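Entry for flavin-adenine dinucleotide complex. Fields follow.
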Amino acid sequence: MPKPSPDAFVIGAGVCGLSSALALLRSGLAVTVYGADLPHRSTSAAAGALWGVHLVGEDERIGHWAAVTLDHFRALGTDPSSGVKEVAGLHAFLGDQAEPPDMTAGLPSPARADKATLPAGYRTGWRYRAPVISMPVYLDYLVGQVIASGGTLRLGQPLRSLAQVRDLSAAPVIVNCTGIGARELVPDDAMTPVRGQVVVVPNPGLTEFFVGERAEPERITYLFPHGPTVLLGGTEQPGIASTAPDHAAAGEILAACVAVEPRLAGLPVLAHRVGLRPLRPQVRLETSPLGDGRHVVHNYGHGGAGVTLSWGCAQAVSAEAARLHG
Ligand SMILES: Cc1cc2nc3c(=O)[nH]c(=O)nc-3n(C[C@H](O)[C@H](O)[C@H](O)COP(=O)(O)OP(=O)(O)OC[C@H]3O[C@@H](n4cnc5c(N)ncnc54)[C@H](O)[C@@H]3O)c2cc1C
């Protein structure tokens, strides 16, 4: 049973908030998660998601967080209810790419793809295995784990400031996992939204992922199989904060993916998803005083790598909360 006043109050019910809550619960703390919206309406729900460090600020801690999360995802890959599965795939480039892609750092033995197997227009490619995460399934899994571990999930109005937490909770530790919401909440002018749009279609039998470089800035072609569906992407538009689907962009995503994989032609669109990647020059994982003797552990600003870093950052939040708790 949760204690009447939790030990930790986590703001944000995306992948970073739910992962942090779960790590805190597993360390023995009582936890409430507070979100302004359902997990399925977060940026996290729109992510592809492929494990691999991409579009995130420079930070020497990133390699460790990514490695911890990789181990975690590999363990979860044996449980189909988690939505996590290690999958083989191809990362293709328009020019000569002599070295394995940066996203494969930490993965064993990426192999150069045979040029004859590349889709039209690509000159080099690298094949490797990596965890692919069906985010709606994984977010449900995390919610289930948080509840089963005794945590509480609350939905309410967006907080206007961190000081407003005083009206909601007496928890000694506050954890700020508000993603792009931190821009107004903290406030933090260093945050830039990088809009991402994807399309979901039925899976015509694809079992491998594909990531392909594009000549157009703000575009990247990818296909991630999620069991009965495939997620097709996508856009990377810095400074655009609209979450309304752009139907012209969706048509362009479909056309680019069909050019790579003809079996996708003519399939009905099941869903359009849009999210705002919370990009910051550096991930903010640090503690600051709330001003009333309590502390806020910030865990936001993971850009295009929030899923990849989620469990490593959650472990760091848990260690920091343990230190603050004495
Ligand atoms: C199209 C796309 C593809 C992506 N692909 C990948 C990928 O392949 N691999 C990868 O690692 N990452 C990927 N990402 C990036 C990843 O999705 C993000 O880094 C990650 O979801 C950030 O998670 P978060 O929990 O910090 O934020 P969010 O998911 O945005 O969650 C924030 C939470 O905080 C709540 N909140 C915000 N403001 C307030 C407030 N004022 N008061 C109360 N609650 C508030 C929200 O309601 C929400 O619950 C992708 C993103 C997009 C958009």
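NOTE: The two ends are 23 Å apart (CA to CA).
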